[in-house]
Write a structure and sequence with these properties.
By secondary structure, the protein is mainly α. It has helices spanning 7-11, 31-88, 91-100. The termini are far apart. The relative contact order is 0.03. The model has no long low-confidence stretch (mean pLDDT 83).
């Protein structure tokens, strides 16, 4: 066999070391590195696409918690107001309110007493 059968060794200059590339050789594509970089890029794009929906979900969760507490407070207020309305509709409450305003029943006499000490 002659040394001409291997053209890559024949075209390499004598001073070139094993790992160095010379201008005469085309650069090899490192597919493993390119694949990793592509996967990293895709992962970053997917991560970016997930950020906005996750932020919206967290915001909606906080809003729903605030609205639940507001509904609870409004429910307690409604219960209190319904009880107050029922109490004010009774005849005793109506009579008490009328007496505070100075009204008397038909046939009664009104007496106003001045100069009483304050309790």
């Amino acid at each position: 066999m002659s040394s001409v059968s291997n053209p890559t060794h024949a075209s390499r200059p004598a001073g070139a070391a094993g790992g160095r590339r010379t201008g005469a050789q085309p650069a090899r594509v490192r597919w493993d590195r390119l694949g990793r970089m592509a996967m990293l890029f895709v992962l970053l794009v997917l991560l970016y696409l997930y950020i906005s929906p996750v932020r919206s979900l967290i915001s909606a969760f906080h809003q729903s918690a605030a609205q639940r507490s507001e509904v609870s407070a409004l429910s307690r207020t409604t219960t209190r107001l319904l009880a107050e309305r029922a109490a004010l509709r009774s005849s005793a409450a109506v009579e008490l309110d009328a007496r505070k305003q100075g009204l008397v029943k038909p046939g009664e006499k009104e007496f106003v007493i001045f100069g009483l000490p304050a309790n």
